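Subject: Interface between my chains keeps coming out wrong

I've been trying for a while to get a sensible model of this assembly. When I model each chain on its own everything looks fine, but I need the whole thing in one frame so I can look at the contacts. Pasting all components below, labels as-is. Any help appreciated, I'm running out of ideas.
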Amino acid sequence: MKGNTGKIVNVDLTAGRIDIETLPEEYYRKYIGGSGLAAKLFWERANFKADPLSPEAMLMFMNGPLAGIRVSGASRSSVGGRSPQTGHWGDSSVGGYFAPELRYAGFDGIVIKGRASQPSFLLIMDDKITIEDAAEYWGKGTEEVTRTLKGKYGKNYRTLVIGPAAENGVRFTLILNDGHNTTGRAGYGSLMGSKNLKAIVIKATKKERTLAEPAAFEAMRKDLNERIKGSLAANVLHEDGTAANLLGGMFIGDVPIKNWTSNYWEEAGEALSGGSLTSQYLTRRGACAYCEIACKRIVEVKDGPFAVPEGPGPEYETIVSFGCLMGSIDLAATCKAGRVCNDLGMDSISCGGTIAWAMEAFERGDLTLSDTEGIELKWGDMDTVINRILPAIARREGKLGDLLAEGSVGAAKKIGKGMDYTAHSKGLEAPMHDPRGGGQGMALSYAMSPRGACHVADPMMFMEMGGKYYPEIGFELILDPRSTENKALAATTSVALGAIENSACFCNFADGEVTIPDWLNLFNYVAGYDWTAEDMMLAGRRVFFLKRLINYRYGLTAGDDDLTPRMLEPARDGEVKGVQVDLAKMKKDFYKLMRMDPDKGIPTREALEDAGMAEEAQQVW
Amino acid sequence: MEFWKDSDEAVRTIVKLQEEAFKDPDLGPALKKVNQLILYDYTESGPGCAVWVDCRNGQLSCGAGDPPGKPDLVLSLSADDAHRAWSNKLNPIVAITRKKIRVKGSATGLLKLAPKTKRTAEIYTQLLKDLNMADKILK
Ligand code: SF4
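Reply #2:
Try treating it as a single job with all components included. I did that and got this:
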């Protein structure tokens, strides 16, 4: 096999067994790699009755075919399985350095089942794989564990580490790569923690990989890298990070404020913008493997209540979720909160969303001092958030910590109040982009994304901005973010392209310059898929369909493709005052165009058969 | 050119627009925050067809032709597309994606100005009226 290695590592932690499996080549052509391949393996191997935190649950780390090819943005990987946060299919993309190392070690993925009898970690040195004792690391933060493991094995050993929150079964937990890069969404830290697996450490001695057409690939690589590096997005992301356009987003009403009750706070836009972070706290820039964009921030807050030593800094999502979403414009606090979340092992989007929800619940009297055991939840009180609430959640300490550890949806269910002012889809807290300002199409993306509300499940957000178009496959629409016109049509391209991006494990900040011919060349020169544009788009659609089928088997239907009343109410202020999302219309059109059943929310039998999924069709129809 | 008599008319009008923008209580301070030397390069519409705006060091100045130093940011487009852009009838991201506008240099300053496009268009429309060019106003 070219590009991919064709091999995955199967680990059974209960039995302490490790074996190497060769996958059929056909799996790759049909499901691309990354989260697509993970979904394929899940579909055929998972016990759908198993609780997401039971030993039987599958935890999959999966590379795309492009890992390690020395192209900016191409070396991410995916984590997938039944989400402990939402209870259905989920996946999460992670940057950093894990993907190339796994590829160089000779593998496309790791599939973990079972539960170790004691805290353990997985050590992979090329093809030598062992389960090691992690008792000394259990209960410790990701920073210390990463440092200790790197100190013991070497700086170039790549690490995936969970924090105490994951050990304690908090719903929204992450896995941290090399101390900086997170698989933030859908709670896979807890899945790993439920297996008594504290870390994965990996090192490959050689940096070799076989490509289908090395000369042709090398000829395109340089040009593609130059185009990516020279693009407007790269320029801005490098300079001021992912929060570079926070102020612009504020003006168009894209940035949620105070638990999605407001769409405009100019002072926050200025104070929290990427430019402010650059001028006040940035010390260096960081990058994922082979990425010349280097959008990652290294920051230091020298003094004040939120001082943090030099280390990984917050990106846009953390800045907003621990900034204006909680009614704060304290940029230093976002630096500190991001660091604490990483160390405790919690996803800053869901964690921030849950705390902002709790602040509103407290203000309304739906949460009382008795529920919080005397902790006052006040907008903008970042001292209480960082020093009391975050540690309490991570340890499930006290009534409040235990309640919020369930996430906003779980907490609202538990107290029997406040569901209408949660902001999520399918149980996953929404990212920090408000479709009322950011674009109606994004609302459709949030609702249709198999893992739940997600702005990177597909490129709709960038399409609505005008930043992506694909004339080679007939997508030349100029979309008006405020209108629903053509959004369902655009989404038919967008969901397929999103599945391609996420299965190729390509960063969506970097792939604005990747044209359809580039995508084809990448897949064909690297992995020898021998695709036409039609084959590629069909593979993307197939991956989207398969994830929808997995969710259907978990009982999800079209009724779950929804947003909350808070997200659907008219915007209250700013440029978008009065703007409402018309989701129902877009949904109806989307199902029709995608040949999906409008009640079940899955593709029709015929649509599945046409996508080469006759066997899958038989199981659901 | 679709909108301009010649490149001289385009340059004169756009320089005047910058001068009006400097005086605006909202745009003036916003421009100072950009802190860059920007070159709007319209030379594809004719030789010398270019406007520079210097927002460095808390000062604001502008002119036609060659900029007073190496620009931090160069935006290359046609004078007609410039007219559309200043009229807020050309989405700059769409134009950049479709290569109608080419960007060279640090574009972070542009982001600071992005929220001000509506106000700029208002000033531009008024200016066109004042200069007896109301026929150029895009509906
Ligand atoms: S753009 Fe940023 S997140 Fe994406 S690959 Fe590069 S450094 Fe990583």
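Reply #3:
Confirming on my end. The pocket of iron/sulfur cluster is lined by residues A 73, 95, 237, 287-288, 291, 293-296, 507, 509-510 (CB under 6 Å).
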